[in-house]
Design brief:
308 residues, single chain, globular, 4 strands, alpha/beta, DUF2268
């Protein structure tokens, strides 16, 4: 297994010092080009002229610092993610997260991984709702972390990366296509967050779980989601997964769901599954959602108790 770290801090420093007219292409070639295979899989054009002005830069800038924002003025932000210790901690998190699957006798089809951490866009409402950090790991071989660097988010990046690595492993075994439904997403997010806390402790449980209390989960979320598990189409199931506020930001129709309803539901659903079956988080990660959901039918009727 080979893990390559793309040091974004060095790219930000280079772009910040570049003339304004050179920033865009420098950023595209240094930060975006190494992830070319991911963009191809996601069908996002590398250059704007290929699709009505929408390309990897436009896509990336929705939640991250855009090339024109990368100036000497953001040097304090860049400095916060420029230490060797920060990057070695992130790399250890990725390495540990992936290697543990191999140690538990799960042979990973993908052997090369690329990861980076990007500075978030302070104007991104979605990132603010997520308390300043997030990630993406749904394309096997590619792992991203995103943060507004501060004392709260920096220590949480290792857990966020473990979460994304879990997605990365799952989608080496589970096919993602137009038939993917809400049930798969609830299971997937539940697995990922349980994996993060398995590795780094419940104190690093993400806000996408901690901000949901037992009353909201049992009375408002579970009764609705149990009836929507077969729902397909991202625009249809996203509001149930992310909640109304983020759904509105993505121009999706709200469905009267609180913040990250599907994440919180998934977290406790997977805890129920692991207790009931005695399976490990490693085995569960590569288990089809339909099989998991079939074994947790009691979860929907049982009162979930949330500690703390």
């Amino acid at each position: 297994m080979y893990i390559k770290t793309l040091r974004s801090d060095r790219i930000y420093q280079k772009v910040a010092q570049a003339p304004p007219e050179e920033k865009l292409e420098l950023f595209r070639n240094e930060m975006m080009a190494p992830f070319m295979k991911q963009w191809q899989i996601q069908q996002i054009p590398f250059r704007a002229e290929e699709a009505n002005g929408f390309d990897v830069i436009a896509f990336n800038s929705m939640t991250h610092r855009s090339p024109d924002q990368i100036t000497r003025q953001i040097s304090p932000e860049v400095e916060l993610i420029s230490s060797d210790s920060f990057w070695s901690q992130c790399e250890r998190a990725v390495t540990k997260s992936l290697r543990l699957f191999i140690e538990h006798e799960i042979s990973l089809p993908v052997s090369e991984y690329l990861f980076t951490i990007q500075l978030g866009n302070p104007e991104s409402r979605a990132l603010a709702i997520n308390e300043g950090y997030s990630g993406f790991g749904g394309i096997p071989g590619f792992i991203w972390g995103t943060l507004l660097p501060n004392e709260y988010t920096i220590p949480r990046m290792k857990a966020a990366l473990a979460h994304e690595c879990n997605h990365n492993v799952r989608y080496q075994f589970i096919q993602w296509d137009h038939t993917v439904n809400l049930g798969e997403l609830i299971v997937s997010e539940g697995l990922a967050e349980n994996y993060a806390t398995f590795l780094f402790g419940e104190e690093l449980l993400g806000p996408w779980v901690t901000r949901t209390n037992a009353e909201t989960l049992n009375r408002r979320i579970k009764p609705v989601l149990r009836e929507q598990l077969q729902l397909t189409g991202f625009d249809q199931f996203a509001p149930y997964l992310y909640g109304d506020e983020i759904a509105k930001l993505q121009n999706f129709k709200p469905v009267n769901m609180p913040y990250s309803a599907g994440y919180a539901c998934g977290y406790y659903l997977i805890q129920y599954y692991l207790r009931k079956t005695g399976r490990t988080i490693f085995e569960a990660t590569i288990t089809p959602a339909a099989q998991i959901l079939d074994e947790v039918k009691g979860f929907w009727d049982e009162e979930t108790i949330i500690n703390g």
